[in-house]
Amino acid sequence: MKLFTEYPEKDEAKYCTLMSELVKKNMDNLYGGDKKKTAKRDTHSKTHAAVQGTLEIFDFDEAAIKQELSKRTSLTEAQLQAISLKQGLFAKPKQYPVWLRFASGAFSVKNDYEGDTRSMAVKVIGVEGERLPQSHELKTQDIIVHNTELFFIRTIKDFYGFFLQVYRAKLSPFLIPFFLLWRALHPYEYTLLETSFKRFPKTLLIERYWSASAYSVGLKSDFDPYKPGQVPVEYPAVIKYGFIPVSSQPPHQQLPLESRPESELQRVKASGSEDNYYREDIIQALAKPDAEYTWDFQIQFQTKPEMSIDDTTIPWNEEESPFFTVGRLTVKHQKVDSPLENDFGENLSFAPGNGLAVHRPVGAINRLRSIIYPIVANDRHEKRGVKYQEPTVGAKF
Question: What pLDDT is attached to residue 397?
Fold first, then answer.
């Protein structure tokens, strides 16, 4: 394998097609026909809140980052010179308004005392430049991150196999043994999934988030958008995104992560009451006039081929490839509990492939997500009777 290169899977097109058909069936099974349930996403179904914020891109030291890369990679001087970090979203120092959607990762809405991953989807507004062909908006950049650094599925084929058994288990309890068989045949993946469920943050406003999947920084002059998934494709550089919580005041020190006490989780569970802890926490925290929450926006480079782009179950070791801070995300006092705000968060559409061409999502799971996310979003909006509009600052459809 080569650095900064994504590779196709065997029968990739076949399994992408099968997955596309399956998610349509799943959405119809959940929300179609005479069902009275309001359509939600097929994953990350529970919206905690839609929140406004600001993403500031710094005038970061590109030369220093490339100097560090020269120490940690086998790139030649010519290859290092070919890397241009200050392009796209990173082109110049600037403040962008953003919409954030905080959510939980499960296939259905669950109580917050149940194990799950938590996500923060970031929609950067007013981003100019050449778009990815699959973009559903004209001037935004979506960055989807979770509070786990890994995704638990290795391949597109494996993801289809997992999702198929989840779908079947929902159709009938008699089909649950097929999911149990999948679990027995994929102990590594299931262990990763279980591990990601073990963290219960005290607040999603002071939590660390990773993209888990990778993105390009720039494209080669001979790049062909039809080649990924067909042949190996090399990029000038490949990164992952991260948001790490820091204090709102200088020197913006990293904040320790805190968890909900186990005693509280057990108490709420035993009470039998509905648990919307994370939504209530965000509402109360941001209602305070002096509320301010801050994350350093960071990027992490692939520094050796063994740090796989396509297999997102392989972590990128931070000792071998440290994160570099390139900006700061800030959220301040606001009201987020109105019915209009709730609907807005539900209707927002995020996708890895919504953004600039130079920030192309790369790797097997991202290639699948770039196909699946628009299918689910369009189906969801149709079932909800929503005429989707590109969001702007302060505007809610």
Answer: 45
